[in-house]
Please model this.
Amino acid sequence: MAREITARWTDRATDLDFTAAWHDVRRVVLEAFSDSHSPSVQFTPASMGDAVLQARPEIERIPFSLPHEHHLLDDLSRSGLENDHEIFHHRRAVRADRGHGRAAPAPARADDNGAAV
Model:
């Protein structure tokens, strides 16, 4: 399956080498993605964001946006067809019990009172 992830961050640095920061953030995100089991689409970007905040102290906040898409094995028997393990990609949910939309967590540093910066 493929996943498209968008991340935009807010930093407090005035002399940031953006190219170097981008490459490092990308590395941290990919490592965090590959190093953890994710029980949900919300958990994945939260753990990636926490890893970025730990690795890059100048980053204050890193919102992610992930499409909530499905690759489902559909029951085609209602149409008199057989599905020989063919997976269909759905941008919208085809069943009411499947979520759809976008997951958009935004991990952020907390101030001294515990509120997100």
In short: Residues 6-69+99-103 form one domain. Strands lie at 6-7, 10-11, 59-61, 64-68, 70-73, 87-90, 101-103.
